[in-house]
Amino acid sequence: MRRRRRSLSAVLPLMTLPPLALAAGCAGVAGLHDDGRARDVKAPLALWADRTPAPRVRDEDPGEQRAVPGLARVPSGTMKDTDPMAVVRADFAADGDRPPAPDAVRSPVFHDLTDDGSPDLISAVDLDARASLLRVYSVRKQVVTRVLAMRAVLAGVELAAGHLAVREPTKDPRYVSVTDYVWDGGRMGLWDLTLDDYRTPRNPLPTTAWSTPPPSTSPPSTSPPSTPPPSAPPSGTPASGTPARAAPLLEAATRPESPESP
To answer: Which of 55, 123, 227, 241 is most buried as measured by Cβ atoms within 10 A of its Cβ?
Structure first.
């Protein structure tokens, strides 16, 4: 009897082991397999390492400042006292180019980018159905001066806190490259280069989970209410379960921003 009790006492701890531990032990042995030899990790191979591009020439600097010849001086110091079309035509003539057609010049935008308290002129000329010339003009010591000039595919141009952000499409239709320029005290300099989600006028901001109210998960009540139901909320008050700021956010997302008029 003593020997039988000892054998049972030795079996009982094995029977009480968690099933997960036993299963894990079996799966660990059966799940191992050989994927072959691991690939060797090597440093990137530089192609044509002995060839480097020439430095950027002066005309390729978007922030290079140049006075626009053939225009009268502006004692007021604001580009609002100039003729935007005359400025664009004089600038093109100084480059030796043919003046653009009036329908190719977008409506002028006046905004203080040089942080001197006076509005500057932001102009865009469409060269064809895709490429455009974006230029910014400012009055420097009473002289109309071009402070930014770049050729780009304008998927969007934005102004925020003194920054001029130029959005251009990439090979991936989901993203655009954003080139951010800002006045650094003496010139329009490159601030940042980033990637951002592609936006359209109909979808200026990514959609959120609050665009539709979440479905109710509580089961319907079968018992009659003990108290009368509350009255409908007044106009402008959101119903229960709907975020109070959902509508204003959607309105702000779909309302186009109007540029500062001349």
So the answer is: 123
The SS3 assignment for 89 reads helix
Give the pLDDT confidence of 91-145 residue by residue, as tens digits.
999 999 999 999 999 999 999 999 999 999 999 999 999 999 999 999 999 999 9
How far apart are the C-alpha atoms of 219 and 224, rounded to whole Å?
Answer: 14
Spatial contact of 134 and 146, defined as CB atoms under 8 Å apart: no
Which ranges in 95-193 belong to alpha helices (H)? none
Q: What is the mean pLDDT of residues 72-78?
A: 96
Structure tokens at 160: 């925020």
DSSP state at residue 104: G
Phi, psi for residue 169 in degrees, rounded to 5? -70, 155
32: amino acid identity, one letter: L
Closest among 131, 160, 149 to 58, alpha carbons compared: 149
Residue 172 · residue 165 · CB < 8 Å: no
3-state secondary structure of 128: coil
Q: Could you give the dihedral angle defined by the CA atoms of residues 240, 209, 195 and 167, in that order, rounded to the nearest 10 degrees?
A: -70
Report which residue type is found at 217. T
Mention every residue, 6+ apart, whose C-beta is less than 8 A from residue 155.
Answer: 167, 168, 169, 176, 198
pLDDT, one tens digit per residue, over 46-72 is 889 899 888 766 557 899 999 999 999
Closest C-alpha among 178, 227, 219, 225 to residue 198: 178
What does the alpha-carbon distance between residue 183 and residue 178 come to, in Å, rounded to a whole number? 17
Which residue type occupies 150?
A: M
Name the nearest CA neighbour of 164 among 139, 184, 186, 144.
184
